[in-house]
C-alpha cells in the first residue's frame, strides 16, 4: 500500500499533465481504500493526486473514471481525472494507477441544513440521469459482500457473532425490500469524505468506486447514514434537510416511503459489514477492529421521523 508520495514522484506525475515546479505534497483526509494527496505547485496552484491501490485491475480504474465522465456530462458536479500527455487519464507507478484531479477549494461538505438540502437535490438529479454500462447493477458493499463474508466464515470455521447476525438480517431484508422500486444511478457511499462543498453548496461528488444502478431511495437513506447522526444521536433536522432537497427535484413514491426503514437498515448493515470485512477479515487491524460496532449499535435506535412521514 502506498503510504507516501515523494517530491520526485509528484514531479513525475504532474509533468505528464504539462506542469512543473512541485513545492509540497500533503495527504488529504479520507480515503480508506485509495489515498488522495494535494500537490502544491509553484505559483500557488494545486492538483490532487489519487492513488488507486485498492484497484489491482486497471480496467476497474478505467470503469470508475468513465462513471465520473458520465455524471459530469449529465450536469452532476464531480472531479474528472485530467487527460495526460499519454492520451490516458491515468498513469501507472509500481503497478498502481495514479490520476490527477483539479483541486477544489472548500473542503468536505458540512452537515448544516443548507449543505444537506443541496446534497439532496444533487443526489436526486444524479438519480434522474440516464444510466450507462459503466455502472453495475449490484452493490459491492451489500448482498455481494455479505455472501463473501459468509463464505469466508464457512471456510475458516469462524462464525463470530457479527456474521451470524448479518446472515439473519440479510435474509429478512431480502424478503422485506420490494422489487420494482424506481431505479437510477446511485453513489452508494455518500459519506462526508466523498462530497466536497462550500458555503452550503455541493461542489463535487467524489469516489464512484461503489456507484451502481439500484433503488433511488437507497442512496437517500445511505446519505442519512453518512451525514444524519450528530454526537451519536439521529438528527431529524438533518433528515428533513436531505429530504426537502431531494423532493425539490423528484418526489418519493408511496412504495419508496414504505421501504425507507428497511432500506435504511440495509444501508446501515452495509457500512457495518464493509468495516467488519476490511478490519477483521480482509486486512485485520486491531485498533480498528471494533469500528463496525458504531453501525451495529444504530440498528436498535428508532427513527420515527423516517417511518411516519408522507
From TrEMBL:
Stretches that traverse the bilayer: none
A single GO molecular function term of this UniProt record: amino acid kinase activity
One Pfam family linked to the record: APH
Domain Aminoglycoside phosphotransferase: 25-250
InterPro entries according to UniProt: Aminoglycoside_PTrfase, Kinase-like_dom_sf, Pseudomonas-type_ThrB
Protein family per UniProt: Belongs to the pseudomonas-type ThrB family.
PANTHER family attached to this UniProt entry: AMINOGLYCOSIDE PHOSPHOTRANSFERASE DOMAIN-CONTAINING PROTEIN, AMINOGLYCOSIDE PHOSPHOTRANSFERASE DOMAIN-CONTAINING PROTEIN-RELATED
Protein name: Aminoglycoside phosphotransferase domain-containing protein
Species, as recorded: marine metagenome
The organism's taxonomic lineage, starting at the top: unclassified sequences, metagenomes, ecological metagenomes
Amino acid at each position: 500500500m502506498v503510504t507516501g508520495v515523494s517530491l520526485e514522484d509528484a514531479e513525475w506525475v504532474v509533468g505528464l499533465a504539462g506542469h512543473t515546479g512541485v513545492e509540497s505534497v500533503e495527504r488529504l483526509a479520507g480515503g480508506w481504500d485509495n489515498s488522495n494527496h494535494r500537490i502544491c505547485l509553484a505559483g500557488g496552484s494545486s492538483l490532487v493526486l489519487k492513488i488507486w491501490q485498492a484497484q489491482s485491475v486497471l480496467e476497474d480504474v478505467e470503469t470508475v473514471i468513465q462513471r465520473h465522465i458520465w455524471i459530469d456530462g449529465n450536469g452532476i458536479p464531480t472531479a474528472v481525472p485530467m487527460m495526460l500527455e499519454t492520451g490516458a487519464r491515468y498513469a501507472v507507478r509500481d503497478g498502481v494507477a495514479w490520476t490527477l484531479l483539479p483541486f477544489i477549494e472548500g473542503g468536505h461538505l458540512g452537515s448544516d441544513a443548507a449543505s444537506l438540502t443541496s446534497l439532496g437535490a444533487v443526489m436526486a438529479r444524479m438519480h434522474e440521469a440516464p444510466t450507462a454500462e459503466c455502472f453495475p447493477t449490484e452493490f459491492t458493499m451489500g448482498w455481494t459482500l455479505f455472501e463473501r463474508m459468509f463464505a469466508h466464515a464457512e471456510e475458516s470455521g469462524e462464525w463470530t457473532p457479527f456474521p451470524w447476525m448479518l446472515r439473519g438480517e440479510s435474509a429478512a431484508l431480502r424478503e422485506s425490500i420490494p422489487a420494482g422500486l424506481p431505479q437510477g444511478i446511485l453513489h452508494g457511499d455518500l459519506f462526508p469524505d466523498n462530497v466536497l462543498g462550500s458555503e452550503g453548496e455541493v461542489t463535487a461528488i467524489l469516489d464512484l468506486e461503489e456507484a451502481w444502478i439500484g433503488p433511488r431511495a437507497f442512496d437517500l437513506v445511505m446519505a442519512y447514514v453518512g451525514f444524519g447522526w450528530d454526537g451519536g444521536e439521529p438528527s431529524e433536522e438533518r433528515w428533513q434537510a436531505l429530504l426537502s432537497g431531494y423532493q425539490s427535484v423528484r418526489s418519493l413514491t408511496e412504495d419508496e416511503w414504505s421501504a425507507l426503514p428497511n432500506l435504511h437498515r440495509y444501508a446501515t448493515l452495509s457500512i457495518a459489514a464493509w468495516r467488519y470485512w476490511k478490519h477483521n477479515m480482509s486486512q485485520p487491524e486491531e485498533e480498528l477492529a471494533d469500528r463496525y460496532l458504531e453501525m451495529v449499535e444504530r440498528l436498535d435506535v428508532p427513527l420515527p421521523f423516517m417511518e411516519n412521514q408522507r
